[in-house]
Amino acid sequence: MPLSEYRKKRDPAQTPEPFGSEKSGTELTFVVQRHDATRLHYDFRLERDGALASWAVPKGVPLEPGAKALAVHVEDHPLEYGKFEGEIPKGQYGGGTVEIWDNGTYELLEEKRNGQLTFELHGTRLRGTWSLVPAHMDGKEQNWLLIKRSDEDAVAVAPPAEYKPMLATLDTRVPTSDEWVHEVKFDGYRAIAYVRGGDCRLVSRNGKDLNGRFPEIAKQVVSAVKSPHAVLDGEVCRLDPTGRSSFSELQQGSGPLVLYAFDLLELDGETVVDLPLLERKRRLRELLDARNTAVRVSDDFADGDALLEAAKGQKLEGIISKRARSRYAQGRRNRDWLKIKVIGEQELIVAGYTRGSGRRAATFGSLVLAVNDGDELRYAGNVGTGFDDAEIGKLLKLLKPLHRDLSPFAVVPKLPKVRKGDVQWVEPELVAQVKFSEWTHDGHLRHPSYLGIREDKAAAEVTREVPDADPPEAIPPVLRRGKRELRLSNLDKPFWPEEGITKGDLLAYY
User: Pick from 474, 174, 109, 136: which is nearest to 339 by CA?
Assistant: First the structure.
C-alpha cells in the first residue's frame, strides 16, 4: 500500500505521528507496537520497499510453534514510525497510546507468489521464524494469518502451564533482617491471572474459574498488562469507602473492584518463577500500565514493624513478609512467605446450622463451624452475627441441598444453649470466612462474626491456623566468640528450594 493512504488518514497539525521520508538502512527492520486505541491491539510492521508494511494483530504475536493469530493488513507506515511512541490525540485516526513492545532486524527467508512471507526475527522478545499468510478469512482480502514456525535456533519458549499459588506460613513475629520485604495482606479472592493471546482467564486458589464473577477485572487485566502473554498472581478485592480491602465488602458491598498484583509467574511465554522475588516484582512494575487503577502493583516496604503498626491503625487484616531473594514455590507453604495477622480471621467449614428465633424464626440462628483435624472434623464454635437478610437467603439456598440426618462429627459436639433437635446437619462442603477475637483454650472461636462464603477454598484444605511453635532465630552473617570471628556467606542460598529451606535456615536449626 502506498504512503499516500497513510497521509490521507492523518493531519500532521493534529497528531505527533511521523510524516518524514527516512531512507532504508543496511538491514531490514521490524517493530511491534502496543496500540491502546478504541480496541487494544498490537501493530506488526516489517520494512518493505522503503516503508513499513503493517498488520494489526488483535491477540498479539503468537509464541508457540504452530500457533496462529489474525493479522489485518492495513496501510503502509513511514520508516520513522518504527521509532514512534506517544499519544495520538482522541478523535484522530487511531487515537490512543502507542508503545514499542519489541523491535529489531529480520531476514526474509521466502516470499511466495501469493504474497506469503516467511521471515526470521532478531528482536529482544521475538527471536525465531514466523510466516504471514494472506488467508482471506471471512472473504476479506485484508485478513491474513501470522503463524509461528518451528525452528531450532529460536529461544526456547515454555508451553502454557497451569500454576498453583505459593502459600504463606502464619507467624507472630515480623522478620527484621534486610533480606526481607513486606506487603499489605489484602482481604479478597486469591487469583492467578492468565493473559494468553490477549485474553485473560482468572483462576482461584482451588482452580475455579473467576471470570464469571469478576468479568470487569478480567477485561482490565488485558488493558493493564503491556504484553499479550503473561501470568500474574494477585488478590481481587473490593474497596470500602476508606479505601481498605474487605472480604465482607467483596461479598455484599458496592465499592470499586481492584486486582492487587503481587507476583509475576510468566512473561512472553517464559516461566520466571525461579527468579528472585525482587526481580519478579521489578518486571511486574514494568509490565503494568500505572494509569490503570483497577490493576495495581502491591507495593513492598523495607520496615515491616512500621507497616504492621500502620495495618493495626487502619484495621487491616495484617501483613505478608517475603524473603527478597526467594523463588516462587508453586503450591507450597514455606517460611519464605510469612503472614502476620492483626485481626483474627480464617476459613471455617460449615457443618450445620441451628434453628432461628424471633425475626429469624423462619431461617436460622447460627452456623455450626468446624476445622479439619487429621481425618476428622473438630467443632470450632457457632457464628450468629454478620448476616443480612439477603445473605441469609443466599446461604439457605446453598445449605438445603446439603442436608443430612447424622452429624458429620465423629463425636457429636455439645452446642452451647442449643437443644439436640434444633440442629440441622449438612455435608461439610461450604467454607465460610469468619473474623474473631481469639481462640479459647478448648479450641473454640471467641466473638466470631461471619464475613462471607469462600467459593475459592475447598473444605478439605481448612485447618486451624496456628503459628510455628518455635521457629528458629535467623542466624547472623558474623559469629563471634571472644576474639575469634566466623563469617558466613550466602545464607539465603536455597538448599531445598521446594520447601523454601536455605543455608541460613539449616545452620539456625542446628
Answer: 174
Beta strands at 229-238 and 257-267: parallel, antiparallel or unpaired: antiparallel
Nearest one of 286, 238, 284, 227 to 261, comparing CA atoms: 284
Residues identified as active-site:
185
Those residues whose C-beta lies under 8 Å from the C-beta of residue 208, and which sit 6 or more positions away, are: 455, 456
* Pairing status of strand 270-271 against strand 117-123: unpaired
Kindly report, residue by residue over 430-449, the tens digit of the pLDDT.
Answer: 999 999 988 998 999 999 99
3-state SS of 184-220? ECCCCEEEEEEEECCEEEEEECCCCECCCCCHHHHHH
Compute CA 31 distance to the chain's CA centroid, rounded to the nearest angstrom.
29
Q: Which domains does the chain have, with CATH numbers?
A: 3-148 (no CATH), 167-342 (3.30.470.30), 345-459 (2.40.50.140), 478-509 (no CATH)
Residue 217 CA to residue 211 CA, distance in Å, equals 8
Per-residue pLDDT tens over the stretch 30-69: 999 999 999 999 999 999 999 999 999 999 999 989 999 9
What global pTM score does this model have? 0.80
Question: pLDDT of 258-290, one tens digit each?
Answer: 999 999 999 998 999 999 999 999 999 999 999
Q: Which residues contact 257 (CB under 8 A, 6 or more apart)?
A: 214, 216, 217, 236, 237, 238, 294
C-alpha distances in angstroms, 14 versus 17, 93, 95, 221?
9, 10, 11, 31
Contacts of 23 (CB under 8 A, 6+ apart): 50, 79
The widest CA-to-CA distance across the chain, in whole angstroms, is 90
**What is the phi/psi pair of residue 13, to 5°?**
-80, -10
Question: What are the C-alpha distances in Å from 45 to residues 41, 121, 228, 443?
Answer: 13, 12, 17, 65
